[in-house]
Amino acid sequence: MKIRNFFISASLMAVVFTSCNYAKSNQQVVVSNDCGMNWKQIKSGDAVPKGVANPCYMKVVIPNFPMQGDSRFITNLKDRVRAFVHIDYDYSITDPLEFIKQAKFLGKANAHADNDEALESSAFEGAENMVIDKRIRDISKSIFINEDIVELDQAEIENKLLEESNKILAPLGVSLNFITLTFDLDDQTRQAIDVSTAMKIYESKNLTDLGKAVIIQKAGAAKLVVEAAKEQNIPSQEE
């Protein structure tokens, strides 16, 4: 009886120590047997052991599908024009073994591959800030500083930013799929752009002098309106 119980206990222990789940096609599972010093990737469909007997065993589940991120910051363009920049991007983790070196804090160390929380996108926000956002900001600022806000071609800048960013991010296991760029300018800068654009139209029609006169007249009218509004707010001495 004791021998039978021993074999039953041994069988149960074998099940516990060899129990595993399987890496899914939308997952990139990486494991470490030495507390994150070295990592190994588990192919989709292959079993992922739990590593119960190893206290230094770690397992991280990385998404194998595109994710979205965004970056917001203030930058300088040509001639010291300041702008608030909003960049939306779509990215994929193409090499999990390289990516995990940059973001070892990711996810739950022993997240179960069958658990819905294993692929929680919010867990990757910190990785976006550390791995992606910083690089995008640095590259963006180096590009924007030479761009004239009036002359710039937004589509061309987006393509250039995408290309330059991927050169830096590729060795880190990340690839940007696309970038959308938005400039938020103050009213004064917007007005300057409108004036510059209007003058180019007048010049193309050989109406430069007329254009200058119209612009000066509009500027004067705006000044009169502002000054009139100020005068209305000033109480009279009699009151």
Question: What would you say this structure looks like, in words?
Answer:
- This protein has 239 residues and is of the alpha+beta class.
- It folds into three domains: 2-63, no CATH class; 67-103 and 119-185, Band 7 domain (Tetrahydropterin Synthase, Chain A, 2-Layer Sandwich), CATH 3.30.479; 189-230.
- The chain is 44% helix and 23% strand.
- The strands form three sheets. It has a three-stranded antiparallel sheet, covered by helices on one side. The chain has a three-stranded antiparallel sheet with strand order 6-7-8, with helices on one face. A two-stranded antiparallel ribbon has the order 1-4.
- β2 (27-32) and β3 form a beta hairpin.
- α3 (125-144) crosses α4.
- It starts with a helix and ends in a 6-residue tail after the last helix.
- 19% of the residues are buried.
Question: How is the secondary structure organized here?
Answer:
Layout: H1 2-18, E1 20-22, E2 27-32, E3 40-42, E4 47-49, E5 58-63, E6 67-76, E7 82-93, H2 96-102, H3 125-144, H4 154-169, E8 174-184, H5 187-204, H6 208-233
Antiparallel strand pairs: 1-4, 2-3, 2-5, 6-7, 7-8
